[in-house]
Amino acid sequence: MQACVSLALAVPTRAFLFDLDGTLIDHFEAIHRCYAYTLPRMGLPAPAPGEVRAAVGGGLENSLSRFVPPSRLAEALEIYRAYWHDTMLEGVKALPGALDLLAALNARGAKCAVLTNKLGSSSRLICDRLGFSPHLGAVVGAGDTRWLKPERELTRHALALLGADPGSALLVGDSPYDIDAAHNAGLPCWAVTTGTHTDGALRAAGADAVFADLPALAASLA
Fold it and tell me: Among residues 186, 181, 222, which one has the least CA distance to residue 23?
């Protein structure tokens, strides 16, 4: 069992929204596996891991559209989603410090939720598998509403589920989508470099703070 992080919240933040991929979890193995399965079945070349990594973040439809023409997107989604449903929990891992941070925040009375462009039903299964769910007040993803990050309404919806307001909330993510989602809804974004973007890219996108990983972010709250 991991040791619990000791956190004394010295900031007035009482609600934390966390992105999932690249922030709380490493799910890239499963994501790339699904692309490498889907595209060859459509007569298209399997993408390299770097190509897939550069495409993810804006929701599956947006990501897949970088590899298939619009006329074949529905076909690609059907193949991908069926294979994803059967294999998505193979190889999913919590990033270092993720469970510790959620547990520590929860123990201190903070409200936590996941806010992701990953399919909401998949996200809840993953959070259950990795032990996150007992520390979360909500898991909001694609398909749960008509919105996706960075739309303001999705972030505000997640805050409403927690009974929180932007003035006491913080979004933790790893991409410009997360930064825009936070700022569009009137809250700061702290970014980690464990996903697809560098420190420089995250700062250029307007992150309010950037950390190497979740343990470093947790230390800043102590």
Answer: 181
